[in-house]
Structures are given as structure tokens and as C-alpha cells.
Design goal:
Blueprint (H helix, E strand, L loop, with lengths): L6 E4 L2 H14 L2 E7 L4 H16 L3 E7 L4 H6 L7 E6 L2 E7 L3 H22 L1
Parallel strand pairs: 1-3, 2-3
Antiparallel strand pairs: 2-4, 4-5
Length: about 120
Amino acid sequence: MGEEGQVIACHKQSEWEALLAKAKESGKLVVVDFTASWCGPCRTIAPYFSELAKNHSGVMFIKVDVDELNAIASEWKITAMPTFVFVKGGETVHKIVGADRAALLKKIEELKTSTTAAATSTA
């Protein structure tokens, strides 16, 4: 299903459902990159997204090609690429439309910290 520190490329509806179920169960923050092969900004930010995955353990990074999995893109109301969706506990908590590196990093750090704080306060 993918290793810690890597972006998981999702190619099937069943993979998508399994990844989200696994993340919900573990309580991990999930960052989904809805992308397209023909999208210039998507190609530009892809290496940065991979770098974020390497540098943020405990966060699951998933890439979904909207042309390959258009039913999922439609279900999640994706209308522009790239769109980054942040999911915690099975719920969408934030969305960034566009290849905004600074906003992406800031939101990952903010949501990852709140996940860690919540986990340590209940321990």
C-alpha cells in the first residue's frame, strides 16, 4: 500500500477506499493530491509533494489522477488541478486549490501538530 515517507499513487477505487479506511482507523492526517498528467502546475509541484512526504512522517500522502479515477474526483467535487484535500478522521478538514507550496506546508504542519497534540492529550 506504500511506505512511510512516500506518495501513494492510487489507481483503483478499491485502493482509495482501503487507504481512507486505514487512515481513519489510524487517525493519521491524509493529504490527497488530485492531479492530472496534462496539468503543468501539477507536474511542477509533484517533486515538492514527494519531498513533503519524506519530511512528514505520520502523515499519509496520496496522489489521485482525476482522469484515471474520475468517479472519485467527481465525488470529492474536484474542479481544478492541482487540488489538495486534507482529511482527518474520515472528514475533509481543508482544501487548497492550486500549486501553492507555502500554503501546503503551513497547513500540513498545522494539522499534523493538532493531530499530535490531540493524541498526546488523550494518552
